Every structure is written in C-alpha cells, then in structure tokens.
C-alpha cells in the first residue's frame, strides 16, 4: 500500500468516526442519583438535581402511590418486582409520582438510580441495557409520555426491556412508563385496524398486548373539585401561604374554570400564581 493510499484510508476512518463517534464509557453511577440516556454518541449524563416534588404533596393518588412504593422498595431490596405502566388523565401526577417514589426509596437505598429514556431513543435501549446490566446498582428505567402511532415501530424495541429476548431483562433493571393511553395507542387506530384487517383479532394484538407485558397497571383519573382544592390546601400549608379560605376557594375554582379542566397540574399552576402574588418563593 502506498503512502498516499494509507493517508486516504486514515482520512476516511477519521471522517467515519466523526459521523458515528464511539460510545462513551458508562459513568460513575455513584456520582448522582439520576441519569439521562443520550445517543450519538451513546452516553449516560448524570443529573445533579432531579426536578421533582415531595411525595407528601401528591394528593388523591394514594392507592397508586402505595402500590408503586411497595414495588419499588422490594426492587431496591433486591427482590423481584414488576414493570409498571402509569396511565390515565393528563396532569394527575404520573411522572411526578415516579420521581417522588425514587427519592423516597433512595433515601434508604442510595444504590437505586433513576435513568430517563426518551421515547424516540427506544431503538437504542439494547445498548443502554448493556451499560446497566453489569453495574452493581439497581436502576429504574423511566420512559415518560409513552405512546405509539400507526406506523411507529419503536414499540418493538420496548420488548427488549419487557421480555428481554434470550438474555432476559437485566435483574437490576425495572421499567416504569407513563402514558395517557391504557393500550399505548389511540383507540380510533385500534378500531380502524380491526375493521380493515382480514383477521381483526390479530390486527393490533402485537401492539395492544405490549401493555399487557407490564405487571402493574396504575390508573390515574380526573380529580374531583374537592380533591383539586385539597391539593391547593396542601401546597399552601407546605409553603406557608396564608389566604382567607373563602377567597382561596373562589379564586381556585375560577382558575380551573378558565382552564376548562381540573388536575394536579392545574392546581400547581394556580398555586404558582398565588405564591407569586403573595411574594412567596417556591
């Protein structure tokens, strides 16, 4: 090989490396409580401070809270635990609950780590699991706002976590996902595929059965007005905001009426406005 050929090959190799950089090594998992998975190049970035609320501020979801807390604590202790799908109404605390429970359990079991995986990065989940499989820590793999459209093939990658292929799901990994949809796909799409398929019972079985692979289904439903007001009262008590009860009730109801909805998110948005008017820092 001539010197010119060698130089050309070196340049080609350098160009390919820039286009597809080598994956970075796994981080020091003791450096943080949470990590975010990124691709191009593959890397786990530590999160110095996880954005979350305290568990005692989550009102109206007691049953889901207790179920997920028990499951997480068993997992942190090294026992078997289920993957969990938190589904239901927007703004009712699904993702907040996952992060709050991690904080609660990690107080006693600091080796429990939270790893966030974006839905669009699901095809890379096998590479992520390779980083986690051999680590001594235990990991909650968290995928927020999970759903799939008609031509979306990402759901196949999710089976690597739920079923694990011939290797099986890593013993030190459990998946918690949130979704507004119980079956992770729109109801009208389910009906359309069933009505147009040669075998309706098999048309969407693969996608619909994906949700069946979660051992825990935790439903989150719209809150009542009393629950909505109780959320705001809890925030006021926690942050020391004092307002005449009748004034607080009237303003809170007016706020939710203008939004056309009641939820934990709407309650927090009202309280954020209230605290700002009262000169209270959150």
What order do the helices and strands come in, and which of them pair?
Layout: H1 3-19, E1 34-38, E2 43-47, H2 62-76, E3 84-88, H3 94-106, E4 112-116, H4 125-133, E5 138-143, H5 154-162, E6 173-179, H6 187-196, H7 200-203, H8 205-212, E7 216-220, H9 225-239, H10 245-259, H11 264-278
Parallel strand pairs: 1-4, 3-6, 3-7, 4-5, 5-6
Antiparallel strand pairs: 1-2
Helix pairs in contact: 2-3, 9-11, 10-11
Protein name: ATPase
Pfam families: DUF815
Concise account of the structure shown:
The chain is α/β, with parallel strands linked by helices. It has helices spanning 3-19, 62-76, 94-106, 125-133, 154-162, 187-196, 200-203, 205-212, 225-239, 245-259, 264-278; strands at residues 34-38, 43-47, 84-88, 112-116, 138-143, 173-179, 216-220.
What does it look like?
The structure is a single chain. The chain has about 280 residues and is of the alpha/beta class. The chain has 2 domains: about 30-220, P-loop containing nucleotide triphosphate hydrolases (Rossmann fold); about 225-280. The protein is about 45% helix and about 15% strand. The protein contains 11 helices and 7 strands. It has helices at about 5-20, 60-75, 95-105, 125-135, 155-160, 185-195, 200-205, 205-210, 225-240, 245-260, 265-280; strands at about 35-40, 45, 85-90, 110-115, 140-145, 175-180, 215-220. Strands 2-1-4-5-6-3-7 form a 7-stranded mixed beta sheet. Strand 5 (about 140-145), helix 5 and strand 6 (about 175-180) form a beta-alpha-beta unit. Helix 10 (about 245-260) packs across helix 11. The longest helix is centred in the N-terminal third of the chain and has 17 residues, at about 5-20.
